[in-house]
Amino acid sequence: MVKKPFEGVKVVQLCWAGVGVYILNYLSHYGATTIRVETATRPDPVRLFAPYAPTNKEGEPVGLERSAFFSITHTAPEYGISLNFKQPEAIDIFKKLVAWADVVGEGFPTGVMDKLGLDYEGLKEVNPEIIMMRTCGYGHTGPMADQPGFGSILTAVTMMDTIVGWPDRAPVPPSTYYTDQLSPMYASLAIMAALDYRRRTGKGQYIDHAQIEAGLNYMTPLILDYQVNSRELALKGNKSDHAAPHGVYPCQGNDRWVAIAVMTDDEWQSFMQVIGSPDWARDSRFATAAGRVENSDELDRMVEAWTINLPPEQVMTRLQEAGVGAGVVADARDLDKDPQLNHYNFYRELDHPYMGKLRYYHPDPVKLSAVETVVQRPVLLGEHTDYICKEILGMSPDEIDRLRQKGVFD
Amino acid sequence: MLSCYRILDLTDEKAFICGRALSDFGAEVIKIEKPGGDPARLKGPFYKDIADPEKNLIWFAFNSNKKGITLDIETARGQEIFKKLVKTADVVLESFAPGYLDSLGLGYEDLSKINPRIIVTSITGFGQEGPYRDYKDPDIVVRALGGLIYTAGYEDRPPLTTSYVHTHCLGAMSGAVGTMIALSHRVHTGKGQHVDAITQQALDIVCSAEIEGPYALFGEIPTRHGRARAAVTLKDGSVFYNPLLWQCKDGYIALNLLLNPASAKNNLSIMQYIKKDGIDIGSFEHWEWETKSWEDMTLEQAEELMDILGKFFMNHTKDELLVLATENRFQLGPCNNAGDVLKYPQLQARGFWKEIEHPELGTSLKYPGGAVVTTQGYCGIRHRAPLIGEHNDEIYQELVMSGDELKVLKEQGVI
Q1: Helix residue ranges, H only, A101-210
Q2: In chain A, % of residues over pLDDT 70
Q3: Could you report the per-residue pLDDT of A333-387, keeping only the tens digit for each?
Q4: Would you place residue A55 in the very low, low, confident or very high pLDDT band (cuts 50, 70, 90)?
Q5: What is the pLDDT of residue A50?
């Protein structure tokens, strides 16, 4: 059997909320053995995020296992242990896991792990070669180190709430708490680079992942433009400085839209043919990209008059077949039935003990030719506490019972 | 950390950031452009708005740290040289239309015959296979099919893409991670592989929890609500969209208003600040924050609260509200623009910004520093992006090519 990329790599995952899971999913999807440490006394807030799968019985509490938000994002194989860090024995068990592990990932604001003696210095005493990745909103030094890292706010401070909008209105958010998904890829890279480096040198390390700093690495062109041209990004609806037609156009149906981008003069020729070479399109003002951009308002009205009578799927297919960029403005239903995403088996159906069969568990957005990703339903809170204590830490059943009585595994 | 790896970078502007991120961690990345320069160099913005291929700001941003050579891989001699380079490399990054490199005899299958350890990472909008394989993938089109446009914008206008073209950065960054997965796999197998990195899927991951969850469970299709993100249910069962983004004195701020007993302390202290400004908080003077939630509020009250908050924010600047938020741990923050982040106190305290010399421009520019800080050395920008063909001599001499040979190749337009 050929080994998986991270086979043999042991990860202890204490990341709660949004970002940590996106960081570590890549390792766990590709063969790492990951133990997720949680406690019901202070559950991961994402376990409480709506929407919830309905319960079977009237009046039954929703509990911690029915958040679709949680299960959509937690699609990697993991083992789960519950440890209540208010109990000193829980800290001892955690340290044993650190001794076992190659990577520890955590996502609390500065102070939480430090107060427990579980900062990098503390972990290094237990395991000198450990790789510790700490993700938080603003980094673990500086005046904002102990601030909570809300994705809602980090999206704003990393400039991502000022990049979508119309010139005559307030900007709108970019659909999601964008930094939650953009910043993690840098931390995944850092962990993988650290593992590679440790394999060659034997040296572990501490990785301080400030989501604001990783997020801003996507924004460099805007920061340079401001410095050298004193220019902030101008909101321009759906227009482009370089191309026209370029926009989102209404189609047949209720709130149905298509995105079209004619990027070159060749594509403009093809576009004209698809729409039936009307007289207006042969206007010399539209012959060059610069002319089309300059007259884009007029052009957009003409394009709309064509799209409005067609379903977006048809506009997309007809233009793409002619080599012009066009795509359905996909809503949740379109995504679910998208032939391309389904070709990649991107919506995997899995059974979940509390939520039943659901068709939305995603792999990572990369496909490797020599290895398959492993997608699994999320681990239940503390699902493998006994297994981990017994098989990985070698504890006796009596000892496990005693600690359970004390509330160590709450 | 990754200085033992050599990466050949054939990407266009969609995916410059992939090699850039790997170079931040120390990999030697050689950007290969067409003789005369990459066409992306001609699309602005430019340094001081001077349209010059050596002054392109997107090139600066995402090709810094790389070496740069020119090579025409569409010529036979160019292909021969590229293959020689592949023998010395660990990874090839590319973002051409699927099948293009195969048509030149430079696809993964061809290259793995020359160097079985080579990893080829292909970054595209839709992937190397499937019904959309040959679809054009401009930013707005991929963003639409990835689900990020439909839920952005105002109810009374078309949905919105981003005014900052960056969508392919998501696919490119997952390509960087995929490259590291393949390098890790090579430790076990001794062999390279083909990595198919797909922007549409990276976007779908971004919107999955919030957009697909309600559909998977209840068949609900989330749509767009202007400045608001989260819907709440009021006393009469109606749905209310409370704004995330608010106008303030000098721009916008984000406020995630949680109205539940757990947030009572925060909300009470916000009310105190509002009163200090002399703003009448009306019926909220008597609101029981410790026990009540949105579900206990009438639409009239919800609108009253929005009115009170709106007045308060208009009294203050982003900087003032940042101080207020930090002191009280409020879920509130400024909608920074470029000017704001450059003076953001936390980033200054951490020494985040790096001054990078541009000797040809006679100046230095501030760039974002490392995306992470580690105890095994700095991982971020180290030097400016390469000029056209800047490292031709260094790289081609390593392939034992003589000065005369290089001269001929230059005359023939190969390099």
Answers
A1: 112-115, 120-126, 151-157, 179-182, 184-201
A2: 100
A3: 999 999 999 999 999 999 999 999 988 899 999 999 999 999 999 999 999 999 9
A4: confident
A5: 83
Note whether ipTM > 0.90 here: yes
Q: Where in chain A is the domain with CATH 3.30.1540.10?
A: 246-331
Instruction: For domain A246-331, give the fold.
Output: formyl-coa transferase, domain 3 (3.30.1540)
Q: Is A359 on the interface with B (CB under 8 A)?
A: yes
pLDDT recorded at residue A400: 97
Mutate to test the interface with A, among B49, B56, B140, B356 (most CBs of A within 10 A): B140
CB contact under 8 A, B131 and A30: no
- Which residue from B60, B151, B346 is facing A175, i.e. has the nearest CB? B151
Map tokens 């709108």 to a residue.
Answer: A172
Look at A255 and B223 and tell me if their CB atoms are within 8 Å.
Answer: yes
Angle at alpha carbon of residue A263, lines to B200 and A289, rounded to 5°: 155
Q: Given this model, what pLDDT does residue B336 score?
A: 98
The Cα of B83 is separated from the nearest Cα of chain A by a number of Å equal to 21
Neighbours of A310 (CB within 10 A): 17
Chain A hits for B154, CB-CB cut-off 8 Å, are: 166, 169, 172
In chain B, where does the domain assigned CATH 3.40.50.10540 lie?
Answer: 6-206+385-411
Burial B147-161 (b: 16+ CB within 10 A, else e): bbbbbbbbeeebbbb
CA distance B161 to B187: 41
- The CATH topology of domain A10-218+344-406 is Rossmann fold (3.40.50)
> Is A222 part of the contact surface with chain B (CB cutoff 8 Å)?
yes
The fold of B228-335 is: formyl-coa transferase, domain 3 (3.30.1540)
Architecture of domain B6-206+385-411 in this structure: 3-Layer(aba) Sandwich (3.40)
- Look at B1 and A193 and tell me if their CB atoms are within 8 Å: yes
